Amino acid sequence: MKISLETAGLLAMAAIGVVLIFVLPAVAEVFLLFDLTVFIVMSILALSLALVWGFGGILCFGQSAFFGLGAYTYAVAVINFGESTIPIVLAILLPVILAIVLGYFMFWGRVSDVYLAVITLAVSLIFYYLVGASAGSDYKIGKALLGGYNGMPSVPPINVPGYPKSEIVYGDLYILAASVLMLVYFALRWFLASDFGHVVVSIRENESRAALLGYDTRIYKLTVFAIGGGIAGIAGTLFTAWGAYVSPTVFSMVFTAQIIIWVLVGGLGTLLGAIVGCMLIQFATTWLGETKLADINLILGAVFVLLVLFIPKGIVPMFRDLLGPLIRGRTSAEPRSDNN
Amino acid sequence: MDLALVVLIQVLYAIASLALVSVGLAIIFGMMGVINFAHGEFLMMGGYAFVLSVGAGVNFWIAMLVIAPVTVGVIGIIIERLIIRHLYGRIMETVLATWGLSLFLIGLAATVLGYHQKGVAPPLGKVVIGTYREGGYTFFVIGITIVLLLMVYAGLKYTKFGLIARGTMQNADMSSALGASVNKIYAVTFGVGAALSGLAGAILAPIAGVLPDIGVTYVIKAFITVIGGGAVALSGTVAAAILFGAVNQTVTFLSRPVVGEVALLVVAIVLLRLLPNGITGKYFRKSL
Predict the structure, then answer these.
(1) pTM of the complete model
(2) What is the nearest CA distance from B92 to chain A, expressed in angstroms?
(3) pLDDT at position A145, please?
(4) Does the pLDDT value for residue A181 go beyond 90?
């Protein structure tokens, strides 16, 4: 049996992933794992935008709306229920419903491009203002106080389904988050390799051509948008569980712009790029924040500008262009079989 | 009656300030198709140029009307030459580059000037309307916005540069073939947009104060206004500013500021659903 280059790459990634998930907790400090967990959670969020924007061609400036809705839904529900299983389901379901409603509103109205960006941004900012204005004891859902700009503290962690006492925290939360990241990544790879995924990409390439070939492009875009919303909801859940805290900054302009930057830096139109870009930028931000070498904004800003000028496609496509010919050059020298 | 007058003035002021923060972005987006995310920082730099030169003893009006726009205009041209000109026609890359630029400028301002609110008290005293008092500066902001918009309109419509600039925006290859220097026109247009933003930042500085990251609050509103207006830069932005400003201020008056902000965003969403290419996608298509 001959394994294609792509399968080999996938297998290698899966192997690295499994090692990182299960070996790292045994050797690394808890503090490092705690930091890594939030990077991983943000990578899941970055993947959701990589799908919606990079493959669906939907320029969503408000991916934070789904993330934040998931984060708040989890917080409110888990405070009320005291057990995390139903809250997690809700925290995925509500962002999906929001995405379907919003997607129906936009795609059936033929809104696209930068106009779509403004609508999604506006939705996120509406959440920001409304949740921010929810300070005081009047604004509570069940037992949960929303707390305005101060946010919601002391949110209970995720527990093993059915066992409220077995909490998943620190090292265990790392394993959970990393497994979810890997699961989402491979599920998206499978999704994009499916017939449905191919149509999605063809719509990104040329929407009218896909429509003329008989595909109802709106349904495809809506599906991708809803999947992206759900993944962002998962990330939001993990984020709240990680910090036991959520505040309206998850809906802010600065946060939503960050997601876009992660995807662009890593390489638009790749899934791996979203993870790479997100990890790199978060490591850089944390490192600059700890060492206080210079203002974080100053350095990151300069890096982004240089990146656009010299590596416009993003980091992952650059490496692919550099390394691709080397690897492929070797494989193509081997005798080719027609049925691989 | 007095109350109605005061509310009317405040609505006009909301519209004027929205148009003011958007006009520089509208020129750069509408004429060049560049989404400039560092727009808020152009306003911030205008504010600082004004506040610092007033602090150094320069006359209030010279600092506002001359120093701020000239400083930011020159910075804008330098930025266009160094960064933007490499990225024409690549919208998403300009977004990333100008976003990086925005962070860089915020970081620079924070490093050099620190995170202290700086400001200058607004001049022109108070105007008494019945039992209410309204700052005289409010009237100045409304007036100068109208003057500025008329000047931009006249500049585009009646000057030779305006004609060539409009031609270039319609068809760059054609105007290049007819002997216009496209590079120079882009640079000057970007500089004019930056200068207008710097001026707007200076005009609003006595009211809003200046901070390194004050641009973020401006850029959202400017972005939504300009895109809501659609492809026809000037009239689109004015139309969107009138709609959004009126809704924002009326709702703020009836309820509270947060609800006013939310109402603005809801109107923007509904507007873009009904007119997917902005206001000028359907109306005023032949205007400037």
Answers:
(1) 0.86
(2) 9
(3) 81
(4) yes
H or E segment and range at residue A57: none
Does any CB of chain B come closer than 8 Å to the CB of residue A117?
yes
- Optimal mutation site among B29, B37, B104, B115, interface A, most CBs of chain A within 10 A: B104
Q: How far is B159 from chain A (nearest CA, A)?
A: 31
Domain that holds residue A159: 32-253
Per-residue pLDDT at B212 exceeds 60 = yes
Asked if the model's pLDDT at residue B219 lies above 70, the reply is: yes
pLDDT tens-digit series, residues A190-210 = 999 999 999 999 999 999 999
Residue A293 lies in a domain: no
- What DSSP designation does A334 have? S
Within-domain flag for A202: yes
Quote the minimal CA–CA distance from B246 to chain A in Å.
18
Domain boundaries, chain B: 2-214
Cβ–Cβ contact B101 with A under 8 A: yes
Residues of A in contact with B35 (CB under 8 A): 114
The yes/no answer to whether this complex scores an ipTM above 0.85 is no
Number of domains in chain A: 1
Classify strands A140-141 and A144-145 as parallel, antiparallel or unpaired.
antiparallel
Model pLDDT for residues B68-90, shown as the tens digit of each residue: 999 999 999 999 988 888 887 77
Residue B286 pLDDT greater than 80, yes or no: no
Closest CB to A110: pick one of B83, B216, B276: B276
DSSP string over B87-133: GTT-HHHHHHHHHHHHHHHHHHHHHHH-S--B-----S-EEEETTEE
Task: Return the structure tokens found at A59.
Answer: 């320029």
Is B273's Cβ below 8 Å from some Cβ in A? yes
A159 three-state secondary structure: strand
